[in-house]
Write a structure and sequence with these properties.
By secondary structure, the chain is α+β, with helices and mostly antiparallel strands. It has a single domain, classed as 2-Layer Sandwich (60s Ribosomal Protein L30, Chain: A), CATH 3.30.1330.40. The chain contains 2 helices and 8 strands, in the order βββββαβαββ. It has a 6-stranded mixed sheet. Strands 4-5 form a two-stranded antiparallel ribbon. Helix 2 links the parallel strand 6 and strand 7. Helix 1 packs across helix 2. The longest helix has 18 residues. The chain starts with a strand and ends with a strand.
Length: about 140
Amino acid sequence: MSQDRINASGAPKPVGAYPHARQVGNLLFLSGVGPRTAGSDGTDSKVPGLEVNANGHFVNFDFEAQCHSVFQNVRAVLEASGSKWENLVDVTVFLVDMKRDFLTFNKIYAEYFSEVQPCRTTVEINALPTPIAIELKCMATI
């Protein structure tokens, strides 16, 4: 069975040695997708809604902005892979602060998934590899 690696130019570069997605048959498996934006020069320009000072402490934090950005990045990977939003079948959500962010995430998630309703699991984790508050792991059909 063919396994094709996919990298989306409209999504931020992975932070490790892995593709944005892999297609196996008619299934598409997305690597963890965060809210970082893709820079025009191929680098990641920023985390939406996040500003840190010289010591790395948060000056501004907007979780809603990160939610909208992560959904845009998932859409970019899906479309670059020949799939689409409506083909999502499973979403795993990683939050670094469930108490602070779950209600906000649930509200925004409902806006994006009013018609399409993939299976979903939401878990809290200690940290992600970059200063982001959310990451999604998705599966879709093609």
